[in-house]
Write a structure and sequence with these properties.
Layout lengths: L1 E8 L4 E6 L2 E6 L14 E7 L2 E7 L13 H11 L4 H5 L3 H13 L5 H12 L14
Antiparallel strand pairs: 1-2, 1-4, 2-3, 4-5
Helix pairs in contact: 1-4
C-alpha cells in the first residue's frame, strides 16, 4: 500500500505511517532503504494483521497529496497579521515568516506591505502551495 510517514523518532527508531485514515507503526528494522526514514516521505509498505512487515520509500509522484492548509485562512492571516509573518508560518515557511517579522521590526512597520501583498497573492491563487508542496484547500 502507498502511505505517508507522519512521524519518525530517531531515539526509539520507530515511526508512524498514515494510509487513508488509518495509522501504522513501524520500526527502522522494517525499512529497506539506506537513507534513514523521515517525516514527509512517501512509502510503499506491507502489513499483516495491522502490523507493518516491510517499508520502502517511493517517488512522490506515486502518492496523491491532499490539501491540508486553507487558502482563505492563510490569505486572511496575511492580510491581518502579515507584518508578523504568521501566514507564512501557518504554511510551514518558518524562515520566511521570521524574516518578515524581522524586516517589519527593522523598518519600523513598513514590512507590513510585504505581508499584505502575500495575503493578496494567496487569496488570488498566485501562492498556492504549502511548504511540503501540497496545494491549498
Amino acid at each position: 500500500m502507498l502511505g505517508h510517514i507522519e512521524s519518525f523518532d530517531e531515539k526509539t527508531q520507530t515511526g508512524v505511517i498514515k494510509f487513508e485514515e488509518a495509522f501504522y507503526e513501524f520500526h527502522k528494522d522494517q525499512w529497506t532503504a539506506d537513507a534513514a526514514p523521515k517525516a514527509g516521505d512517501d512509502v510503499d509498505f506491507d502489513h499483516e494483521d495491522g502490523a507493518v512487515t516491510e517499508v520502502s520509500p517511493v517517488g512522490a509522484y506515486l502518492y496523491e497529496t491532499r490539501p491540508v492548509k486553507s487558502r482563505i485562512v492563510a490569505g486572511l492571516l496575511g492580510l491581518v497579521l502579515g507584518a508578523a509573518g504568521i501566514h507564512r508560518m501557518y504554511l510551514g515557511f518558518w524562515g520566511i515568516g521570521i524574516a518578515q517579522l524581522v524586516i517589519t521590526y527593522i523598518t519600523g512597520g513598513f514590512g507590513v506591505i510585504w505581508g499584505f501583498a502575500d495575503g493578496v497573492l494567496i487569496i488570488t491563487g498566485h501562492i498556492h502551495k504549502d511548504a511540503k508542496g501540497r496545494h491549498l484547500k
